[in-house]
Write a structure and sequence with these properties.
single chain; Rossmann fold
């Protein structure tokens, strides 16, 4: 992400960064280390601990032609700014009949698995995907993070760019040649014939691990990485389901209210006659995230969990 942010600052003088501890401290995940020294206080703005204030300021800046990138330390803290995000940034273009646009990117960290307990381990990107006017981007690889961020910068709608905390340690090839990944275009991470595994963000790695384990039992799983929740690429998912006739949606957040419910419903409407069984939803249970590592790991969908659910429910 550091490469993506530097590129934004270097190529567009309307862009500036704003958030807690992104300057002198270098960012809570060290993404903006050295940025303050290189770009100065006008473009790297440390803010008070008030998400409502700095998301509101970012929204106002975007309204008058700037291209701000606002960092919320974790998606849990976005709740403090939910009025600014949902009632202002997301709706101003609609309420002004397109006279106002809000090209604001909100970078934030999502997901659990790092023993940060109940109030710091939540995934709310599914909530924001239900709000008309917001783009919701959920990259799973370094390659996609850069390509999707480049497309997000060109979008005139507010973007929630959710980065899973455990993916910062993931390495992957990122070419020097310029490329973009359009928003709303899912990726087939692995080809398969027997069952489709749909996932996004940190669960893509779980889906890929599950597919590898299923292959040991001669079960061919196709893995789809959604990349974005809004817009949602239903076409790619349905095309896969029509080939495999079975589908499981793997998502880290709670099952009640999870985006997996939207995916399952859309698949049922678009490809009911192609299904050999119900759409399987694999989500975390409806409980707060525990601090204890062994209990936390037990509540986050794992590859063993997925394999067991696939073999049991589909009789494979």
């Amino acid at each position: 992400m550091a490469k993506a942010l530097r590129e934004a600052l270097d190529t567009d003088d309307r862009t500036f960064l704003m958030g807690e501890d992104i300057g002198a401290y270098g960012g809570p995940y060290a993404v903006t280390r050295g940025f303050l020294e290189d770009y100065g206080e006008e473009r790297i703005r440390d803010t008070p601990i008030s998400e409502a204030a700095f998301v509101g300021a970012g929204t106002g800046a975007a309204m008058i032609g700037m291209r701000p990138i606002v960092e919320i330390m974790t998606i849990n803290f976005s709740l403090v700014a939910i009025d600014q995000i949902v009632n202002h940034a997301a709706k101003l273009s609609y309420m002004s009949d397109g006279q106002i646009s809000v090209p604001l990117i909100i970078r934030t960290v999502t997901g659990g698995g790092a023993q940060l307990a109940a109030t710091h381990s939540q995934s709310f990107e599914n909530w924001y995907a239900s709000v008309p006017g917001l783009r919701v981007v959920v990259p799973a690889t370094p390659y996609d993070a850069l390509g999707l961020f480049r497309s997000s910068r060109k979008d005139n709608n507010p973007v929630i760019f959710a980065e899973h905390s455990l993916l910062y340690r993931v390495r992957g090839e990122v070419p020097d040649d310029y490329y973009e990944i359009p928003l709303g275009q899912a990726r087939i991470a692995r080809e398969g014939e027997d069952v489709t595994l749909v996932s996004y963000s940190g669960m893509v790695r779980v889906a890929e691990e599950s597919a590898a384990k299923l292959a040991e039992n001669d079960i061919s799983a196709e893995v789809i990485d959604l990349r974005t929740l809004s817009p949602f690429d239903l076409e790619t998912v349905v095309r896969s389901v029509r080939k495999t006739n079975r589908v499981a949606v793997i998502e880290e957040t709670w099952k009640t209210g999870g985006f997996s419910g939207t995916i399952a419903s859309d698949i049922q409407e678009a490809a009911f006659d192609d299904l050999d069984g119900p759409v399987l939803r694999i989500n975390a249970p409806d409980v707060p995230a525990p601090y204890a590592r062994n209990i936390e790991q037990a509540m986050i969908p794992s590859s063993d969990w997925v394999v067991e659910a696939i073999t049991y429910n589909f009789g494979l």
